[in-house]
Every structure is written in structure tokens, then in C-alpha cells.
Amino acid sequence: MNIQLKAEYEQFIQTRIATGIYENVEDVIIKALKLLEEWEQGYQEWEEETKKKLAAGLTSIERGDVVDGEVVMARLEEKLCKAREFDGISYF
User: Fold this and answer.
1) Which of 2, 10, 38, 74 has the fewest CB atoms nearer than 10 Å to its CB?
2) Residue 91 pLDDT > 70, yes or no?
3) In a 10 Å sphere around its CB, with 0-12 CB exposed, 13-18 middle and 19+ buried, how is residue 25 labelled?
4) Looking at residue 90, what is its pLDDT?
5) Cα within 13 Å of Cα(23), Cβ side
6) Are 3 and 10 contacting, i.e. CB atoms less than 8 angstroms apart?
7) Alpha-carbon dihedral angle through residues 40, 43, 47, 52, given to the nearest 10 degrees
8) Domain residue limits, the chain
9) Distances (CA, A) of 71 to 20, 24, 74, 78
10) Full-prediction pTM beyond 0.70?
11) Nearest to residue 16, comparing CAs of 28, 3, 4?
């Protein structure tokens, strides 16, 4: 396979090789492709999990298992106040 890269990518690869971590261009490309594969797998898992959570949430809503928005905001505010007290940092 023969590919053309932009100059900044060629420089990036050469910089990585110069560190001594990679022996050649192929090593850098292989590492990049492995990382891309791992990222895509993680993204697919996140997407599937998110779809399941949304479906569960919609099912809860259809059953009427909901919490009033004002109650949710009050709970969040309470958690934020406790967090402020715990770490001593002022957020506002």
C-alpha cells in the first residue's frame, strides 16, 4: 500500500521515530491503527450502553416512574453544597 500524508503528519511520525520508541514508520502507523480500533470499540460499547439506558428511562417514564424537575434540581443543589463543604472550594 502506498499512501500520501500531509507534511505535518510526516513530521509527527518522524518525531515519534526520533524518540526511539518506534523503529520505523510502520511501527507508528500500526500503533495508531490499534488505538483507533480500541477507540472505535469503546465508542460502540458506549453507544450500546447509552441506548439501553435510554430505553430503560423511556420505559420508566411510560410507567409513570418520574421525579418532578424541581425535586431533581433541589437534590442536585444539595449535592453541590455538600461537595463544596467537603473540599472547601467556592464554586460561585
Assistant:
1) 2
2) no
3) middle
4) 57
5) 0
6) no
7) 110
8) 7-87
9) 57, 59, 5, 11
10) no
11) 28
